[in-house]
Amino acid sequence: MKRLLLTCLLSAASAALAAGTPAGTIITNTASLESVDDAGQNVTTPSNGVTLTVRHVAAVEITPNGSATQPGQTVIGRPGQDGVLTYLIRNPSNGNDIYTLDTQAQPGVTSALVTYWADDGDGRFDPDKDSPVSTVSLQPDEERVLFATYPVPSGAQSGATFVFGPRATSGVDQAVTDRDNFGQISTQAVLSLTFSASQNGTSTSPGSVTYTHELHNTGNAPLTAQALALTDSGGAWSYAYQIGDAGAASTLQDALALWNGTLASGQRLPIRVTVTAPTGLAGGVQDTLQLGASIVTPSSETVDNQTPAPLTLTDVTMILKGVPSSAKTVQSCGQDATCAAPVSITDGLVQPNEYLLYTITGSNGGNGGLRRPILKDTLPQHLKGVTFRGVASLNAGQLLYSLDGQSWTLQVPSIQDAEGVTVYLGWDSNSDGVVTSEDVLPAGEGLTLTLITAVK
Prior knowledge:
By secondary structure, this protein is an all-beta fold. 2% of the residues lie in helices and 50% in strands. It has one helix spanning 252-258; strands at residues 4-10, 26-36, 42-46, 50-53, 61-63, 74-77, 82-90, 97-105, 115-118, 131-133, 135-138, 143-151, 161-170, 177-178, 183-187, 189-191, 193-196, 199-203, 207-217, 223-224, 228-234, 238-243, 248-249, 262-263, 268-277, 286-295, 303-305, 311-319, 324-334, 343-344, 355-364, 370-371, 374-378, 383-392, 398-402, 422-428, 440-441, 446-455. The strands form ten sheets. Strands 6, 8, 11, 13, 14 and 15 form a six-stranded mixed sheet that branches. A five-stranded antiparallel sheet has the order 5-7-12-9-10, with no helix packed on it. It is rod-shaped and about 190 Å long.
């Protein structure tokens, strides 16, 4: 009886067939027919060989994954510097591959500015050691750290986000990509101030002067009162402080407590300091006040406080005093009531019905203003009035006239034939129609009163 046995022989290469078998692996096998011939001998008859080659099944994997609405990673980027996203790219396929990198980005990101870098092996981004790449070559199961950088604009506001991610495409099969890799760079809050400027001023005694300083938010994040520290020190006179449109207070700290606004990036906040000098101070006396401004918010990964130490400035106020002086001269006009050509009286003698011209000058020889500047003269016995007028050495303001020192007019009152009358010439510096302590004759300026009289 004949016995037939069919066997199949696989080559050694075929033993490697399993998931992940490297691309290009050759699988060969043959079969044979075993039988017993009529003589009772075993006979083996081989078949033809069958050869197969394992195909490269492309694949790529980038982590961490993330979507545009839920980024897989968020890092802090400083304005004016590169923000860095870190990825791991792996070749999970069964063959070598070269992956092309490009960018998918949300609005606000310029894809052309994204740069990819292959890590040098230490896992830390260093542009001096890592290499910029547009493709990555990986063997099966090989992985590599990949960095994606994006320049955060120098003018980016705190919290501004830039969402993008790499997309890797297989060079073996361009239909194979990994695209679910959105990450986010969030702009760091940079806190910074300038405080300007020191000032010098003058005041009368008593008197006051107001200085206006500015806090300028030069950072990229808004500042509230809670983020600021404002101080004042020194200053022996009376001071009042006002921040923005808030109420005034006797200390800068209290003024800050009254301010509940927000100083946006780039905006300026006025700080007004009013100093009031007491009565009785000598000319040249000074008072000095120092102001300080800083940001108290601590630095962290998300915050860079560049003004933690106080910025200081100084206000110096000096007392100015007016020094009054006056002089009076007389000339003879003879029988000319207009005094068109007055002459000197050398012997001190006059006669009845002779016209006289009196000139009274008042001036400020100090370094401060004279308040309520008034020249006055009273006709003595034996003289009767004709007319009077005034001249000022400056233009801003106006001259006023009076016969009682209370009621003032722009017109010269008549004193024709008046006896014992007192005439007043006042300087109305604010042109409000009266002469008060609010009116000031500046240093170096003067008034002149001319009075024509006749000897009885």
